[in-house]
Amino acid sequence: MYPTVTSYGRNFEVGQDAIVISLDRFEPGQAGRSLNRSLFRDMLERRIPPSGSLRKKLFAKGALLDLCIDLSTGNPRAFFHLLNRVLDKGGLSDRSVLLATQEYVDEELLPYHQNLSKRLPKYANHVRVGLELLRGYVVREIRLKNSREKKSNYQSAFFTTPRDISPNLRLALDLLSYSGVLTNKGTVKIADRQTGHRYMVHLALMSTERAFATSRLSDAIQSLSLTDYREFAADDPEFSKYLGDLTAATERCPECSTPINPNAKFCTECGAKVQTTGIIGKLLEEAIAGLSVSARLKTRLQPKYKTVGDIVQAERSEIMTIPYIKEVRSRIIKNAADEFISG
């Protein structure tokens, strides 16, 4: 599902034809974190041999394992990818967790969001500006909030926006929530007896942006509170700057130059049909550098397979002719290519 894009027809009603189920697993309280850690540890136990060095290596350092779970911000896929990167660096240690977290953010979390502009070309500006707003202003303000002296020891990874914020900025935040950079934590009371939307910034991004007051991530995460958030007003001057950038880059009708809404099929002024381009074809032409596999696998694949389309069209038996790539790795590569196309 793509936000504001996927359509189920005019007669589809939420509550009648389907119910909304939140996949948000992360709760900042002690009880919520304990349940989350228990769930992820159980998944991990099912994926590794019941005996052997790997199990001992992971569960012998429970505090660092729990930190990896917390930094995944409730996403099992993020947890396993992060843990794989930690193991590639020699095992669980403070240094390997920090390095793996930085790599995960730089090579997976943010690129996935940025690649939405290829899957949703009409929303490309919202994808770009939303991330710039988050990293250039919102996270900076949360960092300042966390660094101020206060009576409580709370740390924050949360911020709120009013319900009447610009629809364009709301869409940019929704796209960040879709890609997992943000998590929508529901509504909350804000100033002037109003309610607003509360968002949580991915904890791996908070770590790499050094947005906590302490360098000990486990202490910072333990001090998180849903009641401690940075509140932004609808008329925030900085928000207005990003909104201006967003609207200035809006697609225009080639016939009359009227701004075209992201989901428009026809120009509202002259009625000209909005031209669309095939998305799948462009994704198939992307280099395999965008696949979510290790750098070593990409190096082995590149002499024979240059694009994602090459991998999609290849049989697993063909991929397994490459040295060191057999049943398991060929399946991982094919799954990564399918995932890249499907989003």
Q: Your description of this structure?
A:
The chain has 343 residues and is an alpha+beta fold. It has three domains: 30-103, no CATH class; 117-248, no CATH class; 279-342, DNA polymerase, domain 1, CATH 1.10.150. Helix content is 50%, strand content 7%. It contains 16 helices and four strands. It has helices at residues 30-47, 53-59, 62-71, 76-88, 94-114, 116-119, 124-147, 167-178, 203-208, 217-222, 237-248, 279-284, 295-301, 308-313, 316-319, 327-342, and strands at 158-162, 182-190, 194-201, 229-231. A four-stranded mixed beta sheet has the order 2-3-1-4. The longest helix has 24 residues, at 124-147.
Topology:
Elements: H1 30-47, H2 53-59, H3 62-71, H4 76-88, H5 94-114, H6 116-119, H7 124-147, E1 158-162, H8 167-178, E2 182-190, E3 194-201, H9 203-208, H10 217-222, E4 229-231, H11 237-248, H12 279-284, H13 295-301, H14 308-313, H15 316-319, H16 327-342
Parallel strand pairs: 1-4
Antiparallel strand pairs: 1-3, 2-3
Helix pairs in contact: 3-4, 4-5, 7-8, 7-11
